[in-house]
Specification:
Order of helices and strands: HHHHEHEEHHEHEHEHHHHH
Helix content: 40-55%
Shape: globular
Structural class: mainly alpha
Largest sheet: 3 strands, parallel
Radius of gyration: 23 Å
Number of strands: 6
Strand order of the largest sheet: 1-3-2
C-alpha cells in the first residue's frame, strides 16, 4: 500500500487529479502508469461492449479517445477482420486507413498515461502535436462526441482555443455535437452556439438510457452505411435475386482473376478491383466461397 497512514476520508475529499498526483508522488517514477496499465488489463472489461461494436461499425476514419484501454480498436479490427486501424501516436498513419488517436495514453505504453495533476499541466508542453490534431478536426470538420461529458481540462482548453480563433475572424460555427445519455440543460446552455447537446434518452435509469444510446447508434450506423457493400459478400447472398447472385458470382471470379495476375499487370486493374472491393468483396469472401 503506497500511503498506509493516509485517512481514506481525507483522501476522498481531494479531486481525482490531486489523488493521482499524491499517489504519483508516493511511488517510484513511472510506477503509477504501470500500475494503471496492469489494473486495466487484469480487471478491466476483457471484450468490447455492444456500444464499442456499434461505434466501430460506423467505420469512421478519424477517432479520438481519452480512454487508455484497447476496446475500440479491438472492436474495429474484429468488425473489419484485420488489424485495420492505426493507433496514434505509437502507430503510423497509413494512407486510406482509419486511425485512432489516444490523447491521454495507452495501456500498451504505460509511460504515456496521463493521470495526475502534473500530467495535465504539462500536457501542452509535452504533447502539443496531439492537441493540434484534435484542434484541426474541430477547425475543419464537425465532431461527434460520445461517451464524454465535456469536462476534461485538455479537451476544454483545445476547444476554447479554436473558438477564440474563430471569434478573431468573425466565424460563428458549431464545432460538434455531444450525444449525452440524458438531457443536460446546464452544459447545453454553457456550450450554446459552440456544441449542440443531444440526449439519447429521457429514461430515469442509466441501464435504460444506455440501451437507448445503443439503439441510437444502431440507427445512425444504418443510415451511415454504404447500401451496396453487401452485394458481393456471400454471407448475404439470400438477399439477392437469382440473376443478381449469378452476377455477384461472376464479379467475384473477376476479382479472383485480377488477384491472380502478376503485380505489374494487377496494377493496371486497380480501379476495377477497388470498385469490386467497395461492393463487399474481400479475401474473406473468397475463403467463404471455397467452403460453400
Amino acid at each position: 500500500m503506497l500511503l498506509p497512514d493516509l485517512d481514506p476520508e481525507v483522501f476522498s475529499e481531494l479531486g481525482v487529479l490531486d489523488q493521482a498526483q499524491l499517489l504519483a508522488n508516493s511511488s517510484p517514477s513511472k510506477a503509477l502508469g504501470n500500475s494503471v496499465s496492469q489494473l486495466i488489463k487484469s480487471v478491466g472489461v476483457k471484450k468490447p461492449t455492444h456500444s464499442h461494436c456499434l461505434l466501430a461499425s460506423l467505420n469512421v476514419a478519424k477517432v479520438v479517445t481519452t480512454n487508455y484501454d484497447s476496446l475500440y480498436e479491438d472492436a474495429f479490427n474484429a468488425a473489419h477482420r484485420s488489424a485495420s486501424i492505426s493507433v496514434l501516436p505509437r502507430g503510423d498513419v497509413v494512407a486510406h486507413q482509419p486511425w485512432l488517436l489516444k490523447m491521454h495514453g495507452d495501456v500498451e505504453d504505460p509511460d504515456s498515461i496521463v493521470l495526475s495533476r502534473r500530467d495535465f499541466v504539462q500536457y501542452d508542453a509535452e504533447r502539443r502535436p496531439l492537441g493540434s490534431i484534435v484542434q484541426s478536426l474541430m477547425s475543419t470538420g464537425h465532431l461527434v462526441v460520445i461517451g464524454a461529458s465535456m469536462t476534461d481540462d485538455n479537451v476544454l482548453r483545445l476547444a476554447h482555443e479554436v473558438l477564440a480563433m474563430n471569434a478573431r475572424y468573425d466565424q460563428e460555427r458549431v464545432l460538434g455535437t455531444v450525444i449525452t445519455l440524458r438531457p443536460d440543460a446546464i452544459r447545453g446552455a454553457l456550450w450554446k452556439g459552440d456544441f449542440d447537446f443531444i440526449p439519447a434518452s429521457t429514461a430515469f435509469t442509466d441501464a435504460v438510457a444506455a440501451r437507448d444510446l445503443e439503439i441510437l447508434l444502431d440507427r445512425v450506423a444504418m443510415h451511415a452505411s454504404e447500401q451496396s457493400r453487401y452485394l458481393l459478400d456471400p454471407r448475404y447472398a439470400e438477399l439477392l435475386a437469382d440473376d443478381e447472385q449469378r452476377l455477384a458470382q461472376t464479379l467475384r471470379e473477376v476479382a479472383g482473376a485480377i488477384n491472380g495476375l502478376s503485380t505489374e499487370k494487377k496494377n493496371r486493374w486497380t480501379a476495377l478491383n477497388t470498385v469490386i472491393s467497395e461492393l463487399g468483396h474481400s479475401a474473406f469472401s473468397q475463403e467463404d466461397d471455397a467452403t460453400r
